[in-house]
């Protein structure tokens, strides 16, 4: 005893002594009513000052771990050590697996972090589409934090509101208006990222027909959540400028759908941007069948060239309340700050707000207020300009490497942080991945994005966090390996 | 046009000009292919420098809102304005109310922020049990943030892990060990507060018998979530030292339960701390029926006096995996930082992690890392000591005021941030509230905490955010009003 104590030099010593002593008592190394060493003695045993021990003992007494007897020293309070009591409850080992429901099982079975591609140490990994953290401007983030803390620190640290931090809500409403959205009759709920927004909407809506319609392929997290909520998923094929209208019309005519889910900008995984004309036509069709649409505003800030294209929720106009827009800055700004938003019909938002409150009270006020200040200061504009220039450069590099090296059938991606490659049908990218992985290169096989088991000849290459050199090297290796397999 | 532009002095001017021009374009005030004013002209119209307009126009061109024609100036890109296109989708007004499910409806119907007690401006409000933000030590919070940002800022702002921020997980595991928990076979998931933890557990577990057991009265948010998940709720009466064992035994023998939910420390709303002996006895009973228990670690850090009492999860010992412990510092530290944790059987945590990832990816890394650094620095210990002293003082004041003024039948609350008052059965606290509210004093009527419509003669008084003067004045008014009603 006492010989295994080590002192970290960046933490108050008395707290470390206190923690250490608590551990001895709760584990039973020091037993009920046992006398503790004197402060002088313990100081010498642990190589700390007597004063440190005095402080530790004083805290332990305050917290009800030890008691003092005048002239005799300190003793362990009996109720601390639960191991010795006679009424110890039975040893019960519940089989938790059998107590889980399908919702939890499907979450686990479709969890890419658990069952996805693992890159070995030092591997060139094209699996991520997170932003490159080297582009983050930490100085401005710190400034935004300190600015906000000085203005209203106490308030930020106490409870906020489920709907969100008011200045951020107002900022985002204005931001959406600048994208052409008529916000009358609509409202905005701040969420902990896009994913929470999607989860809230799916949790709140009636599963009338049990069917949902989306692009095929589409965002894996969305597929996972549809499955968890028990929806049958119909994927509509993609064309070069977005979802196939003929197929969409056919599906809508064939059977009723509760919801559609669309990613019109930098569609994940194909990177396709839906044309303005197609956006209107898609909305017209969905509106005809009174099918609401969840619009995933994924990466629409990352347009590198060409005209601004209004999101579906703007195209719908003020007279149409059928679009639920899910926004987020995560893919371009700071994913670690879990902030996204839902812009939709007022009535719907009112209920989503209550569901959010019941589930998690509210989104971190610190994240919200820091993001707000950062946006307000104009830092986002400057950062976006720099990030876009850098990602555009990488996008073009990746694209030209694909064209040079890959025996590809078709490459899509108008920008964003990834490109999507289709090989000839015979080439199975799962096998390609296995072969490349052995050479230290990994990517995301496209099949995980398909709603119907298709896409076995496709892959997604995320380039945002890969160096220029590794983009060249990695794609060359994938290309050489693929050629050998064709 | 241009006369309604106002310039805020704490934001870059060019961004404000850009925003303003976007608005004119997206609303159709400036139409497709319309010529914009020259930079000189607009500068003069908006009272900004020509350089500001140059910057704004340059950004607008980059973002695809306007195009330049050499020698002629700038023009609006046609696709911006969605109001004029011929293919405008139909005006569809979906009836969202009819599309919501019971989960959302129950969240709304039981949303206290919407249907609860509203305090008028200047009212003395005993409804809150949030910490007093005046006690927060902002300097140390700022320091913790800056420390952490300097160490690993870029990493903190990019994606983290669903399970939580590793240093915080390790810290909390150690923290729980110091409470006497045997963590072998267990694991820990960081959540966005206690509430997310509860929501995740309820969402993941099979609703075998559809029945849940809890103390009566109990935490309102828990009742809300049980209802949302479709559970029939059985409330077991409280005694002075916690749940009635005889009633608990009776209920367990009468019918099978999927889950129990208990708040052993500073039970909300009664403030009762369950005795060590009763903790063991309760666990023994529940284990006998293989009924898992959700332990709400609510405010157990706020013990003002007496011995440390081990939480249920510690009492259960290493051989019993039936306790799911939900922890949080929110009620004492910073609720604005949405951080809590679930400590439970490894298998269960593994599934909860996937559900959490599917729902919101992860808890704010900034919140987690800031909290970790604050705890590690030893600031929590110092803060807790100061906060406890202050809350203890207020608790004693509130208690003595109740004893002096209220025609009460019974007062419970061994500490914490509130006391719970039971009047004689005839006195209805809803009516009392109405009468007090007219005099500028509000509190929480106890009926909202009851699982069976009972408690109409009870009320909860939260004192943490009420000044000494107002505690005296408020309780006096409640007492005088109650005496008139008896």
From TrEMBL, chains A, B:
The entry's keywords: Aminotransferase, DNA-binding, Pyridoxal phosphate, Transcription, Transcription regulation, Transferase
CDD domains the record matches: AAT_like, WHTH_GntR
Q: Which cofactor does it need?
A: pyridoxal 5'-phosphate
Q: Could you tell me the superkingdom of the organism this chain comes from?
A: Bacteria
Output the SMART domains linked to this UniProt entry: HTH_GNTR (SM00345)
Q: Which Pfam families match?
A: Aminotran_1_2, GntR
TM spans (from-to): none
Domain HTH gntR-type span(s) in chain numbering: 11-79
Please tell me whether the keyword Amino-acid biosynthesis is annotated for this protein: no
The record's SUPFAM superfamilies line, in alphabetical order, gives: PLP-dependent transferases (SSF53383), Winged helix' DNA-binding domain (SSF46785)
Q: Provide any one GO MF term from the record.
A: transaminase activity
Tell me which family the UniProt entry assigns to this protein: In the C-terminal section; belongs to the class-I pyridoxal-phosphate-dependent aminotransferase family.
What name does this protein carry?
A: Transcriptional regulator, GntR family with aminotransferase domain
């Amino acid at each position: 005893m006492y010989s295994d104590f080590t002192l970290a030099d960046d933490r108050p010593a008395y707290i470390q002594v206190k923690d250490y002593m608590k551990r001895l008592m709760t584990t039973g190394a020091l037993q009920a009513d046992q006398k503790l060493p004197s402060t002088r003695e313990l100081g010498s045993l642990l190589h700390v000052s007597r004063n440190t021990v005095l402080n530790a003992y004083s805290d332990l007494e305050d917290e009800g771990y030890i008691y003092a007897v005048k002239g005799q020293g300190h003793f362990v309070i009996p109720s601390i050590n639960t191991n010795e009591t006679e009424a110890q409850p039975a040893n019960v080992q519940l089989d938790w697996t059998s107590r889980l429901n399908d919702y939890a099982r499907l979450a686990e079975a479709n969890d890419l972090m658990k069952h996805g591609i693992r890159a070995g140490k030092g591997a060139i990994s094209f699996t991520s589409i997170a932003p490159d953290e080297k582009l983050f401007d930490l100085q401005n983030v710190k400034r935004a934090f300190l600015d906000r803390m000085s203005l209203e620190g106490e308030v930020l640290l106490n409870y906020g509101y489920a709907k969100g931090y008011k200045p951020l809500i107002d900022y985002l409403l204005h931001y959406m208006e600048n994208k052409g959205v008529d916000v009358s009759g609509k409202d905005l709920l701040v969420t902990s990222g896009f994913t929470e927004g999607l989860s809230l909407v799916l949790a709140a809506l009636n599963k009338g027909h049990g069917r949902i319609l989306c692009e095929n392929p589409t965002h894996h997290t969305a597929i996972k959540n549809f499955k968890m909520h028990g929806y049958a998923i119909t994927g509509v094929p993609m064309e070069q400028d977005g979802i196939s209208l003929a197929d969409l019309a056919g599906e809508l005519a064939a059977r009723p759908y509760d919801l559609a889910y669309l990613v019109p900008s930098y569609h994940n995984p194909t990177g396709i941007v839906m044309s303005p004309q197609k956006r209107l036509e898609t909305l017209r069709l969905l509106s005809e069948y009174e099918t609401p649409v969840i619009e995933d505003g994924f990466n629409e800030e990352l347009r590198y060239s060409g005209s601004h294209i209004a999101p579906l929720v703007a195209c719908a106009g003020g007279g149409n309340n059928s679009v639920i827009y899910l926004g987020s800055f995560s893919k371009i700004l700071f994913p670690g700050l879990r902030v996204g938003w839902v812009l939709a019909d007022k009535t719907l938002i009112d209920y989503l707000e209550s569901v959010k409150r019941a589930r998690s009270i509210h989104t971190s006020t610190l994240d919200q207020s820091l993001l707000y200040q950062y946006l307000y200061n104009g830092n986002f504009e400057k950062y976006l300009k720099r990030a876009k220039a850098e990602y555009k450069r990488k996008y073009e590099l990746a694209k030209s490497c694909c064209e040079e090296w890959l025996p590809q059938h078709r490459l899509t991606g108008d920008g964003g942080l990834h490109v999507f490659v289709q090989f000839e049908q015979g080439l199975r990218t799962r096998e390609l991945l296995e072969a490349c992985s052995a050479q230290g290169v990994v990517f995301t096989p496209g099949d995980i994005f398909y709603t119907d088991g298709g896409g076995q000849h496709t892959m997604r290459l995320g380039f945002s966090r890969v160096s220029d050199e590794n983009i060249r090297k990695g794609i060359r290796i994938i290309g050489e390996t693929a050629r050998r397999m064709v």
